[in-house]
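Example record for the data management plan.
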Amino acid sequence: MTWLDQYRTSLKPISTEEPLDLFVYRPGGFIVAKLLQRTLFTPNHVTIASMLCGVAAGVLYASGKSTTTFAAGIAFWIANVLDCADGQLARLKTTSSELGKILDGIADYVTGTAVLLGMAIGYSHAFTKPWMWWGLVAAAGVSNTIQSILVDIHRNRFLALSTAGSHTLEGEYEAFSEKHGRLERLSFGRMAIGMYRGYLRFAMTITKPKPIRIGPADREQWVQKNRPVIRAWTLIGSSTRISIAVFASLFNRPDLYLLAIVGPVNLAMAVLSLVQSRIDSQGGD
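Corresponding structural encoding:
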């Protein structure tokens, strides 16, 4: 098998991959995964390394200096490459697991929180009214969370419905609640699943995409109808938002990243939600 074939094997389904992942982050992640494929390093080790890079980016942003802001952007970029590499390594080693997926999600939110907190601390002194800066950071944090949830919900539902019958947050929450109850009270797995259940509960409070069940005869038509909007959802995925942060950091302008998240990306999310709602209403029960 050629490296190109192995690279394709390491990817998620192409229809739901983010364009910047395919052409920027996953090629780098694949190199990392290939270097580690025959070692004792596991995907969880790479996930932890990604999280540490993300926390380092937050610490660098907190200094508020132009040189460290540039370094923070590079650290954030590396964190996303490693975030891609952990899943690619899992697929190359055929060791994918639900616990690994949950740990990856936790690492993403730790990184995002560290970066935003670092930006808030590092640049609050540059404004005569620091509370306005903290308010912008808070708005970007809330927006970033909702954007991530919606992209994940619609991407996962598209994958499920294109091959099976239906996918709901409620069903996933019940499945993980059952697994949570079977684990030992003080185990890491129980703690991780408990955190993921909290995430699912929060996701259910802010959005409830209409459950859609389709038969085999209608599935292909449904997939074709949804493919363009799913590709549009991937354009506001995490890698796009991280890339905006990295680019803004090169010019010592983290404010541009925050304004982009609160403004244009939120606008795109609102438009896509309306389009998705209209498509869902035509999809059946």
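Summary line stored alongside the record: The chain has one domain: 3-168+209-281.
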